[in-house]
Design goal:
Oligomer: single chain
Radius of gyration: 21 Å
CATH topology: Multidrug-efflux Transporter 1 Regulator Bmrr, Chain A
CATH architecture: Alpha-Beta Barrel
Mean pLDDT: 87
Strand content: 25-35%
Low-confidence stretches: 207-226
Shape: globular
Amino acid sequence: MTSAARRPRQRREPPAQARLDLYREHAAEYEAGREPSFVDVGPALYLALDGAGALGAAEFQEATAVLYNIAFAIKMRRKAAGQDHAVAGLEAVWPEGPDAPRWRLLIRVPEYVRNEDIEQARELVGRSGAAAVRLERLDEGRCVQVLHVGPYAEIPATIRRMHAFAEAHGFRFCGVHHQLYVSDPRRVPPPRLRTLLRQPACPESGSWRSASPRTEQPGSVDTPPRNG
């Protein structure tokens, strides 16, 4: 066989990177229905940024933009190093309670993210407020969780239902109130907004009456928009 007749060698392409999806990896932690239920939440690492103001107001939106800029810069840096992940959705905890003006915005990140990733991201972003972004770990454990559908202004009524559920099963609220924003308020009208509400709960006097008998089994909540 002449050299002209030889079949060319096929070039082997490197295997595609497997992109880590934290929602799929921890799917059970994001299950919720329209009625409160218990869920066990493991330790998780977050980008965090503190602020104050009404939910969805200008200060909240500006802090959201800063946090996402850092999150995407970290994603691209890690992807270039062979560790790709989907950027998670926006979350917030309310250290002084859900009625207080102070909040802490959160975006969940993989365990391999380090402080030096944030430092490098700050240099790329160069945005005001980026210097305050830090890593923070939450370890919430047993929580009451529910999917709230409707305007943010109606969240307090849903929290009262969560509180009644916890008390009915021998639990009390402990830890900080946690909100996960499934819907984008810029695109979804208030009556259709979907917000996952999470509240750590502790047994009263060490007793626990099982919460297993329920009329509604929780389904997997539509996860917050995956942005990469």
